[in-house]
Predict the 3D structure of the following.
Amino acid sequence: MSRGSTSRPSRHRTPGLQATWVADQVQARGITSLALTVSPYHLARVYLTVLKTFTRRDMRLPIIPLPVAVSPDTPVPETGATAYDLVPGEARRILAYMEEGWVATAAELQEYLRWLWSRHNALLVGPDPAR
């Protein structure tokens, strides 16, 4: 997460619990941008869950997706399934959690991305080489 890393919470069945922990850490430490480092098949759900939590708290900061470099053919240690096997379940969970209010909606994501690109373009594309 940052220097002086704090251990993350254990896995829980309550969607949003880990995102709440992330938001707590961001607020407590004064973090001004966040890279979400997570397995590629989890990335969409994690991003949308953290965004929803931040939106509920009226927190606005750059959230940069940073997928872990792992082949989608590699079995996940906990289940032995590959990312290809797990993606359909992730898609179902995103839709179910959206209905329950745990993940950002398409409209919330669109609003956030417009804000992100309008305020933090250089963070997303790098410095202007002409300068």
Q: What stands out?
A: The radius of gyration is 16 Å.
